[in-house]
Amino acid sequence: MPRELPRRRFREETPMVAYTVRRVLAMIPLIVAIATITFILMHAVEGGPFDSDKPLPPATLENLKKRYGLDDPLPVQYFNYLKNLARFDFGISIANNRNITDIIRERMGVSIQLGIATFLFATVLGLGLGVFSSLNQNGIGDYAGVFIATVGAAMPSIVLAPIVTIVFAVKLGWFNVLSSDYGFTDWLRGDFSNWRQVVLPTIALGFLPMAFIARITRASMLEVLRQDYVRTARAKGLAEFAVVIRHAARNAMIPVLTVLGPIFAGLITGSLVIETLFAIPGLGREFVRSVLIRDYGLIMGVTVFYAVVIAFMNLVVDLLYGFADPRIRY
Amino acid sequence: MAATDQPIAQPYDFLNQQLATKQRGLWAQAWQRLLRNRLAVAAGFVLLVILAVSLAADFSRTVQRYDPTVPDFQATEQNPSRAHWLGTDTLGRDLWARLLQGTLFSLKIGLGTQVIVLLIGVTIGMAAALAGRYSDTVLMWLTDLAYAFPDLLAIILLRQVLLGRDWPIIGEGDPQIPGFNGVLLVTVIAISFVSWTTVARLVRGQMLSIKEQDYVAAARAMGASPWRIVRVHMLPNTLGAVIVSATFGIPLAIFAEATLGFIGLGVPPPNASLGSLIGSGLDAIQVHPVQLIWPTLMVATLMLCFTFLGDGLRDALDPRTRR
Fold first, then answer.
1. A300 and A42 in contact (C-beta within 8 Å)?
2. Is B94 helix (H, G, I), strand (E, B) or coil?
3. pLDDT of B322 higher than 50
4. Ordered DSSP codes for B172-232
5. Do the chains contact at B263 and A158, CB–CB below 8 Å?
6. Chain A residues 175-234 with CB within 8 Å of chain B
């Protein structure tokens, strides 16, 4: 059967692509559902964006509503909203009369920068601490690592941020995070001059996921180090470093990957607090502000945007399994 | 062979009798294991003390000492002293009283949330596992949705929707249950509507695996009604995991509330929640950092204790992870 061969090769190579396409397509109804829920919730909120202490004259109110399309019947508003969403057009922010897509694009950079710094902090230190603990099992180093990981698990951003601010900014004065002018510099162009303002928010936001990753890494390393293939690697005389890193740590990574998705979602939540607290002009602070002033469009825009980002990151994590564990088939 | 008529003495008969007297139920054993975990016992004790003191403060003036909402402009931003144990805030309100008020609020949020979460989660999880494929699909889809929806954003949106509107049955104003005033109840509902999926998935998974166990098959073979099987065999066996999950859910709810309070979506101003205390403490960080320390420490203590207690409960209730 000479025709079997090429078909089989095709089948072996495409599952990952097919899986990705399937997942991306499955994202669409999910995002529409999230957009719908957000739309319903936003319009169920009592009181509109034009509420103020002094009631506006009815004519002005009419004009304002017309301007933002709020005078259409709800179904019409809903379909317009979805239609615009498909073109990544989130509408106009009522508060400052700007295109929401522009606002998101502008604020995103600051948040992504903080997010990447935090993610690196959490994964690198967490993995390091976990591996270190597992290698010194029941030694002093292990107890120190477990202690950090346990206490860190109870240190969400809202607890840690005030502590690091009091200690390092107010008492020691090492970092200047209390001034309101957060300087955003483009790291991609090699300009890291704002690092002093990034360090404390990163620690405050990243400590909990770091502790979480360390705990899981330690547990899974302890399991892996007992496996036969590690003994084999040692027996054939590999250097300890190669045994630990290449043979043990790589396999111990798999359980860690499973928590990266939730950790990422947690970073987004945490950024609302951290950005408000450290006066960082990112997307999180923008969202908090938009809720407080009931800027419908911006709230919906940011929520849907975050949902897309989270769905996308979950997909990336799921794809990473395949690289970490070749046994996984899609 | 005459020897077969004689009852053969089993070599370990005496041991069996001794063991029988020591046999205890599942829950008694779990309780014993929990008591042996010193960290969990300490955490539980600290939590009980915090709960007792903050409850007592709510009832008695001698514990609370000052009215947490009344400002005293003669005594603003004081450091801890004999008159004001933890100092006073920018408006001269006693921080001890405010801390206890905020703590009680947070504890109510944490416990209240888990009550609703358990009610919804266990019901839906059970329905998904037992009622068949259709409800199962719907549940899994809902769970995916809740998973993809950023939690805190959903909580904020729900809270805004539920607050300050007229209700069909309750009438005007925010919903009230004695001890749970409007904002508190609304926050509890908003948080639990987002977090029930964890419990639902857990119950579904447990029920699906228990359904295949031999003892369920045995019960069915003996003619037990489906409801009896669920009530006597399946529910008690899921309970352990559910209790553990609820214990871990409490600090998450407290954290969610603290975040809301911090960004200004907590209780309305004169009252205090731990989150709003952190928020106002932050405003005074340069001049009076003491104000920020107490609520921060309290949130950390609550979260740490509930985590330790949850770890202890998990070790005690789940014999498979027992070391």
1. yes
2. strand
3. no
4. SSS--BTTB-HHHHHHHHHHHHHHHHHHHHHHHHHHHHHHTSHHHHHHHHTT--HHHIIII
5. no
6. 178
Nearest to B307 among A153, A288, A299 (CB): A153
A vs B: CB pairs below 8 A: 112
Structure tokens at A70: 């709020």
B251 vs A154: CB contact, 8 Å cut-off?
A: yes
Cα dihedral B270→B272→B273→B279 (10° resolution): 80
**N-term to C-term CA, chain A:** 27
Tokens of A13: 């190579």
Backbone angles phi, psi at A92, to 5 degrees: -110, 140
- To which residue do tokens 């979950």 refer? A314
Q: What is the pLDDT of residues A89-134, one digit of tens each?
A: 777 777 777 788 888 888 888 888 888 889 899 999 998 898 888 8
Q: What is the Cα gyration radius of chain B?
A: 25
Q: Which residues of A216-253 are buried (b: 16+ CB within 10 A; e: fewer)?
A: bbbbbbbebbeeeebeebeeeeeeeeebbeebbbebbb
Any B CB within 8 A of A59 CB: no
Report DSSP state, residue A244.
I
Question: Does residue B122 surpass a pLDDT of 60?
Answer: yes
Out of A159, A178, A276, the one facing B300 most closely (by C-beta) is: A159
Q: Do A38 and B158 touch (CB under 8 A)?
A: no
CB atoms A158 and B278 under 8 Å:
yes
Which residue in B164, B282, B300 is closest to A46 by CB distance? Answer: B164
CB contact under 8 A, B282 and A277: yes
Alpha carbons A135 and A220: distance in angstroms, whole number: 12
CB contact under 8 A, B303 and A156: yes
Rounded CA-CA distance A121/A199 in Å is 10
From B148, B163, B285, residue closest to A34, measured CB to CB: B148
SS3 A92: strand
Predicted confidence (pLDDT) per residue in B174-198, tens digit: 556 666 667 788 888 888 888 888 8
How many angstroms separate the CA atoms of A39 and A35, rounded? Answer: 6
Q: Backbone phi, then psi, for B224, in 5-degree steps?
A: -70, 145
Residue B307 has pLDDT above 70, yes or no: yes
Task: Inform me whether the C-beta atom of residue A271 falls under 8 Å from chain B C-beta atoms.
Answer: no
pTM: 0.80
SS (H, E, C) A96-139: CCCEHHHHHHHHHHHHHHHHHHHHHHHHHHHHHHHHHHHHCCCC
CB–CB of B307 and A155 under 8 A? no
